[in-house]
Amino acid sequence: MTKKPSYLALGSLELKQRAASLRKSGSPCRWCPRDCGADRLSGETGQCGAASNVLVSGVNLHFGEEAHFVGRGGSGTVFFSCCNLGCLFCQNYDISHLRHGVPLTTSLLADAFISLERQGAENLNLVTPSHYPADILSALAEAVEIGFSLPIVWNSSGYDSVETLNYFDGIVDIYMPDFKFSTDELGAQLTSANNYATVARKAIAEMVRQVGARLDLSDGIAQRGMSVRHLVLPSHYADSKACLDYLRSLSPEITVNVMSQYRPCYQAHKLPGLNRSVDWREYREIIEYGRSIGLTHVLAQA
User: How far apart are CA 284 and CA 282, in angstroms?
Assistant: First the structure.
């Protein structure tokens, strides 16, 4: 049976109040783990590359996500520009590093949410949302007043502030974070953040606290819970296993999509060991490892 999204019980007034409270921490900016202190509300650019305007690179029905997000109508994706992590191997570097996108007001963002629902989307998939949290809440409040009612997917790098995530408790239905690296050291080598693993562990644990570890489905479509992604990197297979170990320590019921589609994008061709694709036999070994340690929902790519 399809569940109503959690935020409908809160109502638009609560959403507006949370957005207003959260907006105060945007000047100086404390929205993400960077804690960079930029005066975002006055137009100063943060370390994420974003300023006062919300930049969006695309709004569309996406049929390339996991099956439990796609269904018949597709996942209603909003691709936000800029990024607070800065992976050197980013496959969407034109959006994240080069910051291509169109500025949208809160009302236009709300219109985008409504449009996706009217096109038949199964959910609202917020892609790289971590640096626009107040605007997302404001837009959601406007959309709810017009009748919006899709479940919300928070699709992030995992580099999220627990304090900011608290504002989305009872609002986000499904968390879909990445868990990229098991150590801060590897994260520091491959991103512009020196504390990725420490931050992501806390963020993912908070997400589990909010929505539970198990991914609840209705007619094969995700309604609530966790769906974590891990991109396997060549030459770092032991780290992939360590990432799975941590997720298993949180719960054996967490759905984990172990992804094989790494390719040397952006600056990866300059990095020893990362200038090639993933070894297929070792990828299969990681899948088997995840299942062997008791993870009951390990998704493999063909």
Answer: 5
DSSP strand E in 6-123: where?
54-62, 75-80, 102-104
Answer for the pair 160, 210: CB distance below 8 angstroms, yes or no.
Answer: no
**Amino acid letter for position 65:** E
Q: Fold for 6-41+54-300, please state it.
A: TIM Barrel (3.20.20)
> CB under 8 Å to 298, separation ≥6 — which residues?
244, 256, 258, 287, 290, 291
Contact 223, 3 (CB under 8 A): yes
For the CA atoms of 14, 202, 216, 121, the dihedral, rounded to the nearest 10 degrees, stands at 60
* End-to-end Cα, the chain, rounded Å: 30
Give Cβ neighbours of residue 65 (< 8 Å, ≥ 6 apart).
75, 77, 125
What is the spatial distance between Cα 160 and Cα 210, in angstroms, rounded to a whole number? Answer: 14
How many Cα neighbours within 13 Å face the side chain of 156?
28
Walking along the chain (302 residues) 10 residues at a time, the average pLDDT comes out as: 86 96 93 93 91 94 96 97 92 83 96 98 97 97 97 98 98 98 97 96 98 96 97 96 98 98 86 90 97 97 77
Both tokens of 40, joined, read 């975002």
The answer to whether residues 90 and 193 touch, using CB atoms and an 8 Å cutoff, is no
Domain ranges of the chain: 6-41+54-300
Interatomic CA distance for residues 82 and 91, integer angstroms: 13
